[in-house]
Amino acid sequence: MSGTTTPAASTSGHHHHRGRRLRNFILPDGREVHIALSPEEADSLRQRLNAVRKDQPFDLVINGSPEHLDALKKAHSHHQSRREALREKHGDAYDEFENVRSELEALGNELHMLTDHAVSLDANFSKYGYSAHLRTYDEGGSTPGSSASSISGFHDSEHERKDWEKERSNGRVMKIYKKPTVRQYFHKGLLWRASETTEVASFELFVDLLYVGILAINGDHASEDPTGYELLRFTITFIMSWKIWTDMSLIVSWFETDDIIQRISVLFIMSCLLGLTTNMLDAFEHTYTQLVAFYLAARLFMGAYYLILIFLIPMIRGMMIASVIMTVIPSALWIGSIYLEMPVRLALIWVTIAIDLSGTLFIIFLFRMGKQISARLGAWIDKVFEFYPATNIEHKTERTNAFVTLVFGYSVVAIIYQSATGFGLNAFFGKAVLGLIQAFCFNWIYFELDGADLFSHAIRRNVNSALIWGAVHLPFIMSYVLGAAALSKLVVAHDCPDADEHNLTEFYAHKSEGEIPMGLRWFYCAGLGIALFCMGIISLCHIHKDPPRGMRLRKSFRMANRFGVCVILFALPTAHDLNSLQLISIVTGLLVWVLLLELWGVSCPEDSLFGQKSQCKYTARCKISKKDLESRVKGGEVIKVEELSEKGEKGMYELS
Predict the structure, then answer these.
(1) For the residues of 248-274, what is the DSSP string, one character each?
(2) Residue 10 has pLDDT above 50, yes or no
């Protein structure tokens, strides 16, 4: 068995091991301790050691376990004692040696931090607020193990070799099947994650394209008949499609596969989602059975995948069994709802939806409250769920941002109409521009104000903020889609001056209404009001950075203003005398007010809102002859880049 034994001098309290990760070390009593990275590796390692070292006693521990830490502390204390003995024996010579070694170590760490690999990793981690104690393991290396985050200044000494292996893998052929690998998981309170970054795959973005059609079909149909019955149909069918999207994103975030079977599986789920979409509009009349059948086909397919993973990755067996159970129970209730008639069917539907959406909450409740309920239950949970997969913050955030961008894009497409007049500057165009401003304000607030300058993301902050952040996105997206769909009808309404329906093409003239239905007013105002309210909740879940010189308006006051505007939006439909142009204008004014107050409030009191503080500097890179460069610098001459010789040794220099 290959391993590395740590020399005595390398175990000082401030020194990082610079070679391969420790795989074994010696205790003060001479007993050798071997380190396994997982329970599976521990079993195979024990068999090899028993065969090779029959007469030599050894200890086997799992990396990061309490036994591992105790053994390290014993060895560390032993070598500290040896160091003190050497200091007493050699005196000043030992201290001088220690100073030289410390300086070399500091300079070596600094040089290592300046490599491309280290800088990119630091930037990525700080963006999402990871702590310096985050541990990582290598997926493809021969000696994977845990290490500190790059924020602490320590990195794997073999990162150059890993980058070279990445270059060699370019152009590889995708495998038909590859055993899934857990991207990140929790074990005894520590987050272990792959050293590779989790990026959004192209097929995930392709899945989102299907949701463009789902939003358009579901939202437009709801705005055509703005009644409570249609709102009920919209809500149920949208939640079903949202559940498939979240489950698929979770599986991709949990497991790394990247094979052809994964692509085919995604295509199958998309086919089921397409079938679900084609049966949405008449779900409560004739196509409910088909709707549920396509939904369950996707859910049970993913449940079957969890079932297979129980045997492929026994390390996380407990979580996979729980996921299978949380798939099978609501599936049985969905099947039962097929045999019920309305309105009794609705009761079972909402119970099933509650189980679908709160299954994760139940598992987290077990984790957090198990020991308080019963000591035996807590011990059982610690044993069964010793390892469980964790959500990748980067992937979850990027996927959610991509979907929200899709939703904002739908609101932009929804306001587009076709004019049939020679001069198109009329009330229709004005309402469309106001609708565009509304979408722009929502996008600005969500991404550049609520989602920027984060000290701690909601997922990293604590469990409660993470759950609220994830749960609030569903009503936020649903209400915004409903408001945007209603806006598309208000834009082409001819109930205001300078809005002649004959100035529209035949298709949009048919959609134009001379009087705004009350339901459409509620869909529009309440939809955007709920969306703005949910965005405020999302913002409160994050911890934003506080500027060193303070800000003009604290976050609590800005949120109070936002929630006050939400109250106005909720009450606006009661103003029956407002026509479509007046209604859209008032809503746009309120949203612009929220945006301007946020921009002014987050700025520093001492900073000006106009101009720039310092002069911009530009840098260019060019090849210069080293001989010409040295000769002209020594002579004090002005260097003209265009006159430099193309001969001689070349070097890359930056000119500012």
Answers:
(1) HHHHHHHEE--SHHHHHHHHHHHHHHH
(2) no
